[in-house]
Amino acid sequence: MLRFFTAGESHGRGIFVIVDGFPAGVRVDLDYINHLLRLRQGGYGRGGRQKIEQDEADILSGIRNGVTMGSPILIAVWNRDVRDMKASYVPRPGHSDLAGAFKYGIKDTRFISERASARETAGRVAAGALCELLLKNFGIEFISFVVEIGGVRANVPEKFDYDEMRRKIEQSELYTPDEEAEKKMKEMIDLARRKKDTLGGIFEVRVKGVPPGLGSHSQWDRKLDGKIAQALMSIQAIKGVEIGLGFESARRFGSQVHDEILIENGKIKRASNRAGGIEGGMSNGCEIVVRAAMKPISTLYSPLRSVNLKDMREEPALVDRSDICAVPAASVVGRSAVAVEIAKAFLEKFGGDSLNEIKSNYESFLRQIEDPSLWLE
Ligand code: EPS
What we know:
Elements: E1 3-7, E2 14-20, H1 30-41, H2 49-52, E3 58-61, E4 63-64, E5 67-68, E6 73-78, H3 97-104, H4 110-116, H5 121-136, E7 141-149, E8 152-153, H6 162-171, H7 179-194, E9 201-208, H8 224-233, E10 238-243, E11 261-264, E12 267-270, E13 278-279, E14 282-283, E15 288-294, E16 305-308, E17 313-316, H9 327-350, H10 355-370
Antiparallel strand pairs: 1-2, 2-6, 3-6, 4-5, 7-8, 7-9, 9-15, 10-15, 11-12, 13-14, 16-17
Helix pairs in contact: 1-5, 1-9, 5-9, 8-9
Bound molecules: ligand EPS.
Ligand EPS binds next to loops.
């Protein structure tokens, strides 16, 4: 079973991730991991912290001669801004501060926020990058981009070439393919900065090359859409997830929602992909399309009303260095979260201890699905 855990605090020594159950024999491209880590740090609207940090994966175990060993992989992303943050007693509305203070009976909210900080997502991106490297061996590719910031929507083509799209997104300061929308989004972020406010938005993750049959219809906790939703909802500041048409499917007739099944050159095809690649909790062979909504960052330079937990008097919330908008960064984290879930489901279906074993299981499954004469009747 593939799983991962992170450890570390925002201003502690670093962020650490242990990836356990990762198969042996996968070549690890460190530049690929570091590229995604640096993408996570970027995006217009990020705060001062990212000028200090230069996130890089320091692989401490599980890899020999550039190849995974099948043993736990420990990766450290060392922090540069290491310091003992001064105590803070005034919780920020929207942050973990007050809920954590109640939960632990602690007035100094740093005990909570140091761990709750989205800096932790550096570990998730390292884990996701490893999973992407595994899945590349099977032609599975990931991409993510920003589709909305502060109410400004990007125009995104339904179908696109992943390499071309990746180039476009990585050239954009907001990781969005629509240049016109990008200008307006930047204006909204500038406005938020002037107003000492923050902004959220929506990102999309797509996955191509996923074979049908990942996940399961048979039990609630094995459904692929449920697992992806949980992984995305667990990312700091994410408030909503949709798959395929998502909420829009609730507004349409069934005939405008479901994807017709056709036969083309003897092969099964779908007329559309409104389901976003998942039906009945299983991948159906179409591209996976997922979106997540991020709320605005909760540290405001013009703070909201709050209460000082030391003297129990009203006082404006803590003002700390923060981001105006971190939706581009969240799009990279979301992509990683989806990569981990697809890798887990992939290994559950084709699992083995080594890449070669997984390959032979995968190829035998492909032979089966391509030849319906082999199916039970
Ligand atoms: C983050 C680092 C943090 C914040 C952000 C994410 O750095 P600092 O707190 O030192 O400015 O920029 O964390 C939050 C938004 C939060 O609410 O905690 C990072 O590396 O992603």
